[in-house]
TrEMBL record:
NCBIfam families: PDHac_trf_mito (TIGR01349). It comes from Pedobacter yulinensis. Belongs to the 2-oxoacid dehydrogenase family. Forms a 24-polypeptide structural core with octahedral symmetry. This is Acetyltransferase component of pyruvate dehydrogenase complex. GO terms for molecular function: dihydrolipoyllysine-residue acetyltransferase activity. Residues 2-77, 130-205 form the Lipoyl-binding domain.
Length: 553
């Protein structure tokens, strides 16, 4: 009988996995213990082994796709066996992707038919010269716009450069143009009312056209058309500012009056460096529109006169700010599983656990001397982070309230000390755990942390390496950071942020002398730890590091 292979839970925080690579294809013979695929979890990329023998009959997930835990990803059985019955028995929701896509396509094709009623669809009306005017996206943060004023009413004749309405956005009040000719057949939003971006606000077309099909379909997004793209391009040029705009926007006609031009025409003229006062408008009242700018050819004589007048103008006016045109450029990458989980867990921690922070300065003079002496004899070099970790473990034994966890309806006070050490990797952050750190020597801790760091960067850590912490340390001192605050790593109640050692003047025995000071900040979950409890822990940690011989007691 065919057996389904499901996405396993490979870590305590894993909710879904990404099929990084398949090591077998449909039709291959599979033995128990064979590696079927590599799965990217929130912690590492791990091998997925088969516990069944037979032929790989079905692959349900393509490489690079993510699926939730327990979802069917493959079926193994006898060669030629019908695997569909196994899929149905497994839940019936894992049909081949091609079938799912086909079904979704059919569903989408049926939707317009049910919504359009007896009228024509938007695409059919467009062929008859009907334009649906939708609320444009006039700023990058805009989600809806309010109709401040209608300049046309139903039944009015509309030209392609006419302003239909003023729209109030989250940034400014801007003009909306229909970019269509005909009769205003419908106004979808009354003055003072708001419409979502891409919602229907008006319809322009031949008088008497039946537009019931579009109205019945509602505000479903329409396919992009050239007019909408032109409107989006014109949006930045329409914003009102207190400072003077470019010379083109403030152009005057030869008789001293203001040049009449559509916002899109002004934007194109500004981009091309065209003086609007030299352009003849073809629209009503001599208004300049897009096609006037595109067809404009500057005369040679005015250009020469402008060049001769330039020295005089510059002498009379202060130097203008030079214009520089840059290029908006960026790249986007899919969010990795590790980054998704970091975002989810730390957001939950910060917005659920009431954080408070305690900072303390520690004199590291004696710790530096002790480290130098230890490294003369130790088989593995001991770092300052190892000293901090050992001192923290001893302090936690003396302050069990800090070595605790919030479990909702109860608080767990851990008697063992498992310290998570934050390690930066290419895709994010991993926190391998040094178990029973209070009972380990400095050289043991040093060797273990180095091993964790190497395996973390090579993506070789296993779930057992990062589970079960009772406290976490995050050290950015090696990057030159003096101090910072860290977000608690749940379910721990606290995390210690360690800064670098700075040479600063300090007062000793009434005299100012050079000193080496390190700042540490304890982030506490106030549901578990109170201020006095956290302060007492830091005092103990400070005493241990300032007299490091106590670490050996």
């Amino acid at each position: 009988m065919a057996e389904v292979v499901r996405m396993p839970k490979m870590s305590d925080t894993m909710t879904e996995g990404v099929l990084a690579k398949w090591h077998a294809k449909v039709g291959d013979k599979i033995k128990s213990g064979d590696v079927l695929a590599e799965v990217e979890t929130d912690k590492a990329t791990m091998d997925l082994e088969s516990y069944e023998e037979g032929t790989l009959l079905y692959i349900g997930v393509e490489e690079g796709k993510g699926v939730p835990i327990d979802a069917v990803i493959a079926v193994i059985g006898k060669e030629g066996e019908d695997y569909k019955s196994a899929l149905e028995a497994a839940g019936g929701d894992n049909a081949p992707e091609a079938e799912q896509a086909e079904q979704k396509t059919e569903d989408k094709e049926e939707e317009p038919a049910t919504g359009s009623g007896s009228g024509l669809s938007e695409e059919e009306l467009a062929k008859q010269g009907v334009t649906v005017v939708r609320m444009p996206l006039l700023s990058d943060t805009m989600t809806e716009g309010v109709i401040a004023e209608w300049h046309k009413k139903v039944g009015d004749k509309v030209k392609d450069d006419d302003v239909l309405a003023d729209v109030e956005t989250d940034k400014a009040t801007m003009e909306v143009m229909g970019y269509a000719e005909g009769t205003l057949l419908h106004i979808g939003v009354e003055k003072g009312q708001a419409a979502k971006v891409n919602g229907i606000i008006a319809i322009v077309g031949p008088e008497g056209t039946d537009i019931s099909g579009v109205l019945n379909a509602g505000d479903a997004p329409a396919k992009p058309v050239a007019a909408q793209q032109d409107a989006a391009a014109a949006a930045p040029a329409q914003a009102e500012t207190k400072e003077p705009a470019a010379p083109v926007a403030e152009a005057k006609s030869t008789d001293g009056g203001r040049v009449k031009a559509s916002p899109l025409a002004r934007k194109i003229a500004e981009d091309k460096g065209i003086d609007l006062s030299q352009v003849a408008g073809s629209a009503e009242g001599g208004r300049i529109i897009k096609k006037d700018i595109e067809n404009f050819k500057p005369a040679a004589q005015p250009a020469q006169e402008q060049a001769l007048a330039a020295p005089t103008a510059s002498a009379e006016k202060s130097a203008s700010i030079p214009q520089y045109t840059g290029e908006v450029k960026f790249s986007e990458k899919p969010v990795t599983q590790m980054r998704k989980v970091i975002a989810k867990r730390l957001s939950e921690s910060l917005f659920t656990a009431p954080h408070f922070y305690l900072t303390m300065s520690i004199d590291m003079d004696k710790a530096m001397e002790a480290r130098a002496r230890i490294n003369e004899y130790a088989p593995s070099k001991v770092s300052f982070n190892d000293l901090v970790l050992k001192a923290t473990a001893i302090a936690l034994k003396q302050h069990p309230a800090v070595n605790s966890s919030w479990l909702g309806d109860k608080i767990r006070y851990n008697e063992h000390v498992n310290i998570g050490v934050a390690v930066a990797v290419e895709d994010g952050l991993l926190v391998p755990v040094v178990r029973f750190a209070d009972g380990k020597s400095l050289t043991h801790i040093s060797a273990e942390v180095k091993d964790f760091a190497q395996r973390a960067k090579a993506k070789k850590l296993q779930p057992a390496d990062w589970e079960g912490s009772t406290f976490t340390i995050s050290n950015l001192g090696m990057f030159g950071i003096d101090e910072f605050t860290a977000i608690i790593n749940p379910p721990d109640a606290c995390i210690l942020a360690v800064g670098g050692i700075s040479q600063v003047p300090v007062v000793k025995n009434g005299a100012v002398v050079p000193g080496n000071v390190m700042k540490v900040t304890l982030s506490c979950d106030h549901r578990v730890v109170d201020g006095a409890t956290g302060a007492a822990f830091l005092q103990t940690l400070k005493a241990l590091l300032e007299e490091p011989v106590r670490l050996l007691a």
